[in-house]
């Protein structure tokens, strides 16, 4: 493993343990430069391809999914462990669909549905980007729909 600080490949594993949900191995590493860093090893069932709204295709990137979820969760009372479990759950669900190509719409809908239960503010934040809200009225209409669903 290459050290992210000094870029040398002479690192050793200091500690190795499974994550709480058992879907990955967390490894603490020590480089000869003295820096410590953490890596995660996960099972990847198949290479997933994301089909964008414009028809373009790209390889599924768990880090990109993770970043967008963390942006929605910023300054919310959700700890990192809960967020990582949520991200792993979404990734596993995508792999379990059994398809090599998945639409970005499917991914966005899965994330939104999960965030709705996890944190309502993060849900609205994610929706505002995913659904491309342009004006205040877009937020108001979206939040009004949420309230309609809760009153049922």
Draw up the topology in text:
Layout lengths: L10 E8 L5 E8 L4 E7 L6 E3 L5 E3 L2 H12 L6 H17 L4 E3 H15 L1 H11 L5 H16 L1
Parallel strand pairs: 4-6
Antiparallel strand pairs: 1-2, 2-3, 4-5
Task: Spell out the key features of this protein.
5 helices; alpha+beta; single chain; three-stranded mixed beta sheet; 2 domains; about 150 residues; about 45% helix; three-stranded antiparallel beta sheet
Query: Widest sheet: strand order?
Result: 1-2-3
Total number of strands: 6
Count of separate structural domains: 2
Largest sheet: 3 strands, antiparallel
> Portion of residues in helices?
40-55%
Radius of gyration: 19 Å
In one word, what is the shape? globular
Termini separation comes to: 53 Å
User: What is the percentage of strand-forming residues?
Assistant: 15-25%
Note the run of SSEs as H and E: EEEEEHHEHHH
Per DSSP, the total helix count is 5
Average pLDDT score: 88
The computed structural class is alpha+beta
The low-pLDDT segments are none
